[in-house]
Structures are given as structure tokens and as C-alpha cells.
Amino acid sequence: MEFVVISLLNGITYGLLLFMLSSGLTLIFSMMGILNFAHASFYMLGAYFAYQISTWVGFWPGLLVAPLVVGAVGAAVERYGLRRAHRFGHVAELLFTFGLAFLVEEIVHLIWGKVAVDYRIPLELDGTLFTLFDTSFPIYKGFMMLVSVGMLVALYALLTRTRIGLIIQAALTKPDMVEALGHNVPRIFMLVFGGGTALAGLAGVIGGNAFITEPGMAAAVGSIVFVVVVVGGLGSLGGAFVASLLIGCIQTFSVAMTLSITDVFALVGVTLPEGSQVARLTITQLAPVLPYVLMVAILIFRPRGLMGARES
Amino acid sequence: MNSAIFSRGRLLLWGGSLALAIALPLVFKSGFMVSLLCQMGIMVVFALSYNMLLGQTGLLSFGHAVYYGLGAFATMHTLNLIGKDGSPLLVALLPLVGGLAGLLAGVVLGYVTTKKAGTTFAMISLGIGELVAACSLMFPGFFGGEGGISGNRVIAKQTFLGFTWGPQVEMYGLIVVWAFLATVAMFALTQTPLGRMANAVRDNPERAEFVGYDTQRVRYLMLILSGFFAGIAGGLTALNYEIVTAETLNAHTSGVVLLMTFVGGIGFFFGPIIGAILITVMQIVIGGLTHAWLLYFGLFFLFMVLMAPGGIASLIAVQHKLWAAGLLPRMLPHYLATALPVLVLLAGLVGLIEMGYALLAGEGVGAGDTATKVMGMELQLNAPEPWAAALATAALGLLLTRWIGSRTRVAWNSALATLHGDKA
Amino acid sequence: MKNSFVKRLTLAASVMLIGGSAFAQVKIAYIDPLSGPFANVGDGGLKGFREAAEILVNQKGGIMGQKLEFVGFDNKGSPQESQIQLKAAIDQGFRFITQGNGSGAAHSLIDAVNKWNARNPDKTVLFFNYAAVDPTLTNEKCSFWHFRFDANTDMKMEAITSFMENDKKITKVFIIGQDYAHGHQVARAAKEMLAKKRKDIKIVGEDLHPIGRVKDFAPYVAKIKASGADTVITGNWGNDLSLLVKAAKDAGLNARFFTYYAGGLGTPQAMGASGENKVIQLTEWHMNVPTKATEQFALDFNKKYPGIYFYYLRVNNMVQMVAKAMNTAKSTDPKAVALALEDMRFPVDTGEVWMRKSDHQAMQPLYISIFAKKDGKAVKHDSEGTGYGWKTLASVSQRDSQLPTSCIMERP
């Protein structure tokens, strides 16, 4: 029981971080049809900017400023890069972001060096929030959850309750009509891209010090965010939310299991030959690859994802 | 249809390429150059096999290294299995085993991945690539763990037509033969009904479906065949390096083959060949010249995506058309005029980047000691002069490029207009 | 790199002209990652070699009057690229190579060197390994042309378990590792050796996780905590280690970590305060081992290269031993050097290093130390500017670190 509660808590925390990372991606992906391979790079930039700002003026200004700077960089990338690549089709767009991810990593190497930087949790948030069955739950994790949920609510309100949100939604499905009504569609796209990358930046500000701020951090989460978006379904923020939590919990609980593949097959009445390498694998060992299994399964059996409105 | 493969011009081109490939090691005798040529030959096959998906069928794959890697492992295991009982002839035929392994992997995995095209395919290929790469470290029995699997391509005291495959040059010969055969086969495939159908499925799947073709089946077949050729490339790697590690089937390898193919040009059969050769040279030769090679590599790639999305092959093809229309002589002076400011711009940029690297990530830069050598020049990096000079060069280059470039563009557009006008 | 390439070209040209026998310098090719994600590790190593060659060899008369020089070749961390760079080095007349980062690349090189030497007996190449620790390199796969100057995984585990044998507070051990050869070897060695030395210690859990893919170690820590372990053994390195330690601190896990790679190359910085009095490492040296000469060498090095911290004592050992072997043999022929290096006993700051003849594995004193607050006494120097440094808990003599080998060496 104790273990289940703690694992659930861990799963939800991790899931919420995943959601912060993938919400921007799902926004960009569903609205502009761009598979932004560099999305995790913006996450990394967020962490590094926040680190840099925190060395000058502290963590709290960084929390606000770093995502905005990342958003500005994102908007510039859209304006001067993606918009041009867009003319050559989706493959060119995708490859552009692919190359961008590459470039960002090298630039981060150059400016901040190749080892982790000392980006710390602010003192106010360092400590234990509560202790559950003698496992402590840090304040910072609580803070991460708070920011993440706050972000979901704000995004939802922005998209459904404000004028700009409605225009954005309209521009996605009927860009020509929106343009005819006198709105500047390219600028809306630039805003969406900037906003999406700013969200990734925010995730970086929060995740950078919870984990480690180092040049490999983008590559480490790069593909898992795609899994979240695909599993959740295109065009669905709610789907991304559910998928994030699902994947967070799957990972956490599969780590907790001590079953091996042999045991699993035994449950359904199949006895595997002893001694083979497959038979010896444990669920724990497989934990980090389970999301990919889930993604492949979803794509095969339900290509529009858990809550998606359409296929690709 | 098949006669097209063996038309006189084509035969000349094929023969010429083969002769060039054979002649190269006679000119570049050093072991390093021969190793480099071997790597190129292998990458050519790999990139061509990738373009069967991307260029010909319109399938963007992020997991092509899976077939390449599995082919390599299968070849290495077979090599070790035949061991001393084998003969050099048998060893020479081993890449076929790699090909069959790739084909088999294609049959199994392709069934799952090719159900859908477009983004769905891209994402599934990414997921499967990650899965296989993760598994490769979990099963050290088959994949050899960190050390990989190694073998010996030389069967003691036996020869085949005088070859033992021991010296690198002999291995190069073997790679050339295989690469040539595979290239011819892949080209021939583009001329078959299946190759044509693949193009139709790429361009207009609905229409292909309407005229009675099963698009899923076409994709599936193309993936299987592409896996076969990737497997051959993997088999050649196994023989060439005599070691196969899990790295051969990870996402990085998949990414590299995508870059090569795209930079070379996906719209032309010979595009990936150019891309494979160019990128291999960039990685190894420029990697030996400067620490900043990854940055140059990234910038070059972005430049290609934005400025020449058709790849180098499309640039060459346009020149060829201009030449055929007799317009190339008209353009040549413009090219030369543009080349000069571009070189100035590049010199400035390279200077800035090199100084940046020397200062931030360089060798021998100690505390208070910012004197360093950049491009053979002794520079004081804490002084503003070298930076100002490089910046000024870059700015001058940029201005000149814009100025001359705009005039070139006018000439270019008029040449293109004439070209298309001629056609009409 | 830039100018050294030009140098290499001219060198290659001159070698071709004079037939490749006369050298103004003794050159060793350093084949390790110099670009990409592990470039910092490779770059730090190269600087260490150059500094050691300059101060410990060249300023003391060099090798038969010639200077020892290290030239970098970027293998980008890849086993295959390592082979291409090996070919490049051989082309340019190099007869000695060194490498350390990654047993994959080491396997690839040892294999290529063996084959090259068999196929080109007049141009043999000798491989000095300064950090690749896969035990098989000096056991099943041992080679006459390979010398290892670092203790291998099994030897290190032998030292760690000997320490644990005497620490009666340890009752429950959890083993966690990266799911690849190194992690497997650590887990296997830990289980075997503990079973022999302390039957009362219970292994309460064992986990493997994919290398470099786990972002949040909280679930693993929850599992360790649930198992009631008081000690964790891990072969993890880099972020996988830092993240594990951080997650343990967050969850309030009260266990000590026995590690291989906590001491250097950015890990102390990433762990920071969360490793205090928790993380134990095994190394051949650390800043607070009382050694006059090496301590000064390290301080000078850290001052000369800000941001890079001296970490490998074995680099200094290797450079001196190779120089001595060449001077003793009065030759720079790889075979003669190898024969002179075999069975060499060399006094260093921390004791004696012995290069065992039967498997070419160096035996050296080892230290077990814990990450503790800098206090100016036992923890005189901190590590990577963190305010925390390494405090020696125990030392293991050269003799005690020895393990039998299964090596059957083919000698030329």
C-alpha cells in the first residue's frame, strides 16, 4: 500500500513534467502540422537561460523571463527559418527542425561547456513538503505539479475563452477564411510557434534544476515527448495530459514490478524455455522502453491516439 | 523498359563510375584514404537503400539503421560460425547474408510499419528504432554488449583468385563490387513496374488506390527490398571493420543516413551517392581539421534545407539542363562573380567560429593566456583586433554577396525563363 | 588541432621521405572523443597526457634525448571511427596509441591492432589503455599488444567488497546498474564476491535500467527504499549516477552508494550537496591522498586549465612507465617496448605500480573515499569547486587488489 501510494505520487509528478514538455509540442503539431524535432532543444534552452539568469538575479525572475526569451527565439526561428522551409513541404520543415536540434546542442556546448552547469533549486523551495510513510516528498516537486496544472488551466482558458484563442483555433482549420476576414495568418502561426516553444522553455526552467542541466538533456527527452503527443492523439491537449500521466505511471509502476518475462508468460499459461536471455528480462529492465511499445501499439490499433480528433 | 538501363549514355556513365572507383586507390595509396573510400562505398549503398523509401516511395523513416545493423550482426555471426571451415569466396558472399537478414527484418517489422504512410509511418519507425536500439544493449548474447561482436575476415592460408581480403585494398575491391552490383540492382528496380508504382503511391496514394493498386502492399514491398539493400551495406560494414557494435543500429546512424540522403538530393537516383560521399568526407576529413566540425555540419545542413531543398543533385541537374540548352556559358561568369564574395563571407564566418571555439572550447588556452593559433595565424584573442577583422570580413562578404547575388539572381531567373520558354 | 593537422601532414610527408625510421620525437596517438557529447572527457585526458609528458618526461631528459608528444585523433566515441583514426595514425607513422573512454572503442582497437600486427609484422603497433575497464580485455581477450594502466571492474569490486567485509553496519545491499556490459559485470562481480566474503549480507534487490534513458530515478529510489537496503552498489557514471544520487536525496533515502565514477569529469558538480556523506568512490588517487608531488602537479594543472580538473593519476603513471620502458630498451620499437614494460615495477607517489606479465594488467594501490564537506584537514581540497571533497576511508594495497587472470597470451 505504502509503496503503491508513493509510486503513484512519483508517477504523477513525472507525468506532469512530461505534460509541460509535450503541451507545446502538441499545440504546434496539431495547429501547424509540424513535427518539431527541436522541441526538446527549446526545453534545454529554457534550462540554460534560467541558469544564466539565476546567476545574475536569482531564480524567480528567471522563471518569468527565460520562457519569454525562449519564446522569442522560437518565434524568430519560425519567422526566418520554418516559414521558408514550409514552402518546400512537410519533410523540409521536419528536417529543418532536425538540423536545428543539432545546431542548438552544439551552440550550448560552445557557450556553457560540455559538462553539467550548477543550476540549483532556490532555497525557498529546497526542503521537504511532507513525509509519507517515512519517504519525504520535496517541496520542489509540489511546485512543479502546481506550475504544470496552472499551465493546463491557463492554456485551456486562453484557447476557449479569449478572442485570440478562438482566432487561433479557426486559423487551424480554415486558414483561408480567417485570412479573408482580415487576420494575419502567418503572424498567428508565428505566435503559436513562439508560444509552444515558450511552454517548453518553462518546462526547462522547472525541470533543469530538478534534474540536471547539461547538453544531453534535450536528446534524453527528445523522443519521449513524441510518444506522449502520438499516444494522446493529434490536436488534443487533453489527450496529451492523459497520455503524460499514463506514461508517467506506467514507467513508475513497471520499475516497481519484479516480474520477469517468464513470469508474465506463466500467468497466461505459457512456459518459456529456461535460460534464454528473453526469459530472464524483468519488467523493471524494460520500463523505459515500454512507452515506445505503447506508442507502436497505439499507432497500429488506434492511429488517432487516445483522444485525437484525426489521423496525422 | 529495361533497355533504358543499358542505353549507351548510361552504360558509359556506369562504366566510368566503376573505372573511377577502381582507379581511386591507385592514386590515393595511404591506408587512411583507402579506409575512407571503403566507408564511402558502404554509405553509398546504405543511403541509396534509404532513398528507396524516402525518395521513391515517400516514406520518411527514422529507424533505417535497424535493417543496416541487423544485417551487420547477422553477417558477423555467420562469419564467426563458418570460422576456419570457410573460404575467402564464402567470406566474399557474406554481405548477402546481411541482405537476407535485412530483408527478413523488413518482412517482420515492415508488416507493422507500412500499414500507414505519412507521419504515422515516421512515428512508428521512430518507435521501432528506439525499441530495437534499446534491446541491443539488453541482449549481450547476440549483440555483444558494449564491446560488440568481432570476427576475422581472413581465412588462414587460403586465397580466392589471389585475394585473402586481409589488406584494406582488397577489402575495398570487394566493397566496390558489392556497391556496384547493389547500385545497378537498385537502379534497375526504379525502372520496374514496382518502382513506378512506388512513385505513384508517393505522389498520389488515392489515385493509385483507385486504379486498383494496393498502396499498403507497394509500401510493404519497397520496405522489404530497402531492408535488403540496407542489410547488404550492414554486411559490408561488418566485413570491413571486423567488428559490429550496437551503435550500428541506433538513432544516430538512422539520423546520419537521413542527412546524407537529403543533402545529396532525394529527387534523383544519384543524389544519395553524392550525399554519402560528401558527408563521409565532411565527418572524417573536416572532423580531423577542426573541433567545430559539428557546428559547420549543422549550419551546412540548415543551409541546404532552406536554400536547396532538392539537394546537391537538383543543383547539378539544373546545370545539366542549362548546359543542354546552351545557357550555361551565359551563367558561368555570374557564378564566378558570386563565388568571390561568398568566399569572403565564408572566410569571415569561419574565422569567427574558429576563434570562438579556440576561446571557449579550445586547446592550450590557459588562464590569462589567450594567445592561440587559429587557421595557422598566431592571434591574441583577448584583443579586439582579430575579432574586428573577422567581423569586418564577414560583413563585407555579406554586403558583397547580397549586392552581386541580386544581380546573379536576375540573370538566373532570366536563364530559367529562357529554359522553360524553350520547352514551351 | 588545426595546426597539429598541418604538423601531422608535414610529418607524414617527412616520414615518407626518410623511410619512417628516424623520429625527432616519440609520438603517441591519443584516440578518444574530441568532439560531441563526450568531448570534455577526451579533451581533459589529452591535456593530462600532454602536461604529464612535458613535466614528468621531457623536462627530465626525455626519451633517449627525444621529446615525448601526444597527438589527438578524434574517434567521436565510436568503435568504427576509432579504426579509421587508427589507420590515419598508422599512415602518419605512429607506432603507439592510447585510448580510454569506452570499452567498445577499446575492444575495437585491440582487435584492429592484433590484426594489423599479424598482417604487418614489420610495422607493429602497441596499445596503451588508460581507462577502459572491461575485465575481458586482460582475460579472455588479452593481447601481447595491449597494456592496461587502470584497475579493471573486477579488481575494483574486489577492493570495494573487501572494504564492505569489515564494515559490519552493512547488512542489506541493493545493486543498480546501467543495462549494458559494464553494469552487468559490476552486478555479477558484486554478487559473487559478497557471497564469498560476507555470507550474512543480503542482496535485497537488483535492477538494471537502460543507459542514459532514465530521467526520473524516483521510482528506482522508492524501490530501494522499500527493500530496506542500507547500501547501494552501482557502476553508473555520468548523469545516470548524478540523477540517482539526487533522487535519493529528494526521497530521504538513508543509504550509502558505492560507486566507480563519482569522482571526476563533472559528476561532483552535478551531484553537489546531495552526495554528502552518501557517495563513496574507489579510485587510484584523489586530491586528498597525501602525496607531495602529485598534489602539486594537480594544483598546477587545475590552475593552468581552468574548468578542467586533474583526475587521472594513472595517466602520469603510464607516461612515466612508457618512457622508462623505452629508455631501458633503448628502442622505440613496439615489441621491444612491450617486452621492457612487462613485469615492470615502478615506484609512484602512492606506492608501487606493477605491470603483470601474464595479462598486461597494471596493479596499483587503490583508495576508498567518501564525499564530504571541505574542512581543510582530512578534506583539504574540494572537488570541482563544489565545497565538497573526497575523504579517504581506506586504502587497498597493490597486492590486495590483485586477482587471478584467465589470460592465455599469444606472444610474437
What does this structure look like?
Chain A is mainly α and 312 residues long. Chain A is built from 14 helices and two strands, in the order ααααββαααααααααα. The two termini of chain A are 41 Å apart. The mean pLDDT of chain A is 82. By secondary structure, chain B is mostly helical. Helix content of chain B is 75%, strand content 3%. In chain B, the strands form two sheets. Chain B has a two-stranded antiparallel ribbon with strand order 1-2. In chain B, helix 2 (31-54) runs parallel beside helix 8, helix 12 (251-264) packs across helix 13 (271-289) and helix 13 (271-289) crosses helix 15. Chain B is globular. The model of chain B is unreliable at 363-370 (pLDDT under 50). In chain C, helix 2 (39-57) crosses helix 11. Residues 1-7 and 9-23 of chain C have low confidence and may be disordered. The A-C interface holds A 2-3, 6-7, 10-11, 13-14, 17, 109, 113-116, 118, 120, 128, 131, 134-136, 138, 140-141, 211-212, 214-216, 220-221, 224, 251-253, 255-256, 282, 284-285, 287-289 and C 37-40, 179, 207-210, 212-216, 218-220, 222-223, 225-226, 239, 242-243, 246, 250-252, 265-266, 269-270, 272, 307, 386.
